[in-house]
Amino acid sequence: MDTPVKAHLRFGGSSAERWLNCTASVQMEEQQPPQIENEYMAEGTRAHALLEMALRDGTRTVLDFEDDKLKPLDPPFTADDVEAVQLALDYVYELLDKTKDHELYVERFVTADVAGEPVGGTADVMIYDPFLKTLHVIDYKHGRGKYVDAEDNKQMKLYAM
């Protein structure tokens, strides 16, 4: 059964590239019916949930979740799913292992008031290194067929703000 996607901020991180390039797109989007979640969106949501669970529990591998699921009605994770999440998990733990006294934030809602309008979204992972005064903003992308460049990424810059 199709379900509407959760509501987002008018000026949210996941759509920052669009609305920073075309501010009128926000008003146009508000006139459209709610977006219906497709199988790729659902797959990405499940992968995000697996990454979140692993980081919150301190789990270093999710490879044993192949053919398993987090919710009873979900389809099971494929080998591709768990391998993709494992790459992200390895990257996060590599940073954590190098960072003494780090602060780890998982699925952290971040927002700022810009001209009376909330701007922000949910950052998948943020790691703050107080010694180097460095913030790592990590946005996990599980999708197929759409490459998202990390260089000059407006979504991550917005979350870091």
The tally of strands reads 4
The coarse overall form would be globular
Put simply, the count of helices is 5
The major sheet is characterized as: 4 strands, mixed
Radius of gyration equals 17 Å
Uncertain segments: 1-7
Mean pLDDT: 87
Notes on the structure:
- With 161 residues, the protein is α+β, with helices and mostly antiparallel strands.
- Helix content is 37%, strand content 20%.
- The chain is built from five helices and four strands, in the order βααααβββα.
- Strands 1, 2, 3 and 4 form a four-stranded mixed β-sheet that branches.
- A hairpin with a 4-residue loop joins strand 3 (117-129) and strand 4 (134-138).
- Helix 3 (39-57) packs parallel to helix 4.
- The longest helix has 20 residues, at 79-98.
- The radius of gyration is 17 Å and the shape is globular.
- The protein starts with 10 loop residues before the first strand and ends with a helix.
Sequence-ordered SSE layout with sheet pairings:
Blueprint: E1 11-12, H1 16-21, H2 24-30, H3 39-57, H4 79-98, E2 103-114, E3 117-129, E4 134-138, H5 154-160
Parallel strand pairs: 1-3
Antiparallel strand pairs: 2-3, 3-4
Helix pairs in contact: 3-4
